[in-house]
Amino acid sequence: MTSSASKPPPRQPKPWILFLAFELLDEIAQYISDTPSDLTSFMLSCRQTAFVAESVRYTTITVEGSPGRKLLSTLLSGSPTANRYLLKISRIWYRGWYDCEIFLLSSLLCEVLHRTSNLRTLWLNIDPAGCAQLTDCMKRLGLMRIAHHPATILRDIHLGADASSPLNLPNLLYLRITGAFQIANIAAHRYLSELEMHQVLNHEEFAKFISTAEDGHLGSSLETLSIKLNRTLDTCLTLPILSHAFPNLRNLALDKSSLVVKARRYFFCHHEALLTLVQEVLSLLAAETPVFRCVRNLVLNRRYACRALKRGLSSPCGEYEGLTRSAMDQQLEEVAARHRRLVRIGIGRNLFELNKLGTFQHTLLDFSSTEWDRIFGVQFSASCISGAPPRHRRRISTHFGYTNE
User: Fold this and answer.
1) What domain of life does the UniProt record list for this protein's source (predicted)?
2) Which of 12, 262, 279, 301 gives 20 to 30 Å between its CA and that of 30?
3) Each residue of 136-156: pLDDT tens digit?
């Protein structure tokens, strides 16, 4: 036997990609996450790449239709791998619109939410027909927290039974609801940081929302709020109520329905309604005791255009009334002098930003501008939900579009 035969076989060289740090492998996985087949191939390369790509693939999941049902069923299989993936989920986007499996999806979704203790972001996009089913499932599994008087558990304490209930979704911070108002009860008694509701609230729904915020932890913890109100709600009455219910609010996006329509014959009356809303809000911010003392960013109907005319809007009597350019400039000066923390005001596509001189400087935003997307809905953006790269910001810097009509 020769000496060469006793030598062990040469070791295979380690692939160069495994010499990279985990941070670089994570960047590679996020770069190819837009193509599921490429990400799957990357995960099947070896155990190290599979371990790194798990956090990219299973941190954010989108539940919709038949693929969503299969995904939820897999997560509820009870296997060690499924339980490990449940702990990795931090964002869920549920789309239950006009689906034949909407009732089955609702049940599976609630079961998954019951087991995802590390969930931080939840987006519920729900068909009104399935809201009742989803609400019942959430109540049955304890996802909707309800405050009971201590006297209700005296019998359980006397019998030696467990009088407490487990805290589901303990790390939930960001919530967006696109559907009926009943689903918003999931936000009750939670320490949320951002809440966005797309449903237009009427008087009764607004009252329930305020009562929920004041009776629990939601009012003191919420920092960013996007809300839509019915046009019949008085702005001068609703804003002080919101300010009292959410004393630590830093970012507020307020929309009022039926203020702007596309028909030309309704332009002037709805344009006047929008300017009246602006005038009421600015007067409350410029008061001696302003509302929303902690707010830094305030935007009103950011999707619509709005212009303050030089002499106001013409009335049927031949006179000019409503908000004028000089009156608006004076109100902005008072806001800058009395409100200590407000630095950015949005009125339609008009942005008023506080400069170093202590005055508000105007910028007209483009329709495709993403200026407010850096403040509102950051956790619900496409880059967080689907892994798509963020769009570049576009902004047109011009003077305020005053006219001489």
Assistant:
1) Eukaryota
2) 12
3) 999 889 898 877 777 777 777
